[in-house]
Write a structure and sequence with these properties.
- The protein is an alpha+beta fold and 141 residues long.
- The chain has a single domain, classed as Alpha-Beta Plaits, CATH 3.30.70.141.
């Protein structure tokens, strides 16, 4: 499992560009093993982002993530987390390298187009959040 799986969410601000983003992710060698379009409720967004609860931006993040539909995608690739973090770029789209997803689709730190797991531990939790049916597969691979 180590380094093989990650989760991404295409956020409400880039939902209209989801097809292009999914094509780009696939082009970069990521295999989609689970995908769903959904709306996060306040409770679900609060649960997903509980790690940020004490931070100043938490309330705005929850409001933003519940403002429209998202696409949750479980991805598989060797070196998935590091490669995906490189593909999406810096959290601040203005600081992201040219050609990264956030540099192309993000408009601010708060509206940065896409989420990507930042560790193997978080990838497991995040995939389980949206795709509990995949956890046994991930843990045994």
């Amino acid at each position: 499992m180590i380094g093989t799986y990650t989760l991404t969410m295409i956020k409400p601000d880039s939902f209209a560009s989801a097809d292009q983003l999914i094509q780009r992710i696939s082009f970069e060698g990521f295999k989609t093993i689970g995908m769903k379009v959904t709306m996060l409720t306040n409770d679900k967004a609060a649960e997903f982002y509980s790690v940020h609860k004490s931070k100043d931006f938490y309330d705005d993040l929850i409001k933003f993530m519940t403002s429209g539909p998202i696409v949750a995608i479980a991805l598989q690739k060797t070196n998935a987390i590091e490669d995906f973090r490189t593909l999406i770029g810096d959290t601040d789209p203005k600081a992201a390298n040219p050609g990264t997803i956030r540099s192309m689709y993000g408009s601010s730190i708060a509206s940065n187009a896409i989420h990507g797991s930042d560790s193997d531990e978080n990838a497991i939790k995040e995939v389980a959040f949206f795709f509990p049916e995949l956890i046994d597969k991930i843990k045994t691979s």
